[in-house]
Amino acid sequence: MPLILRENIENGEIGLWKVSEEIDELLLLAKLSVPDVITYSGISAPHRKKEWLATRALLNELKSEPNPIKYHNDGRPYIEDCLTNISISHSTGYIAIILHNTSIPGIDIELTSRKVGRVASRFLSPEELATCNDKAELSNHWMLVHWCAKEAIFKIVPLSNIEFSTDIRLLMNDSLEDSDSFKGTFNDKSGSITITLYHKLVSEVLIVWGWVDKARFSL
Question: What are the residue ranges spanned by the domains of the chain?
Answer without folding.
Answer: 3-101, 108-214
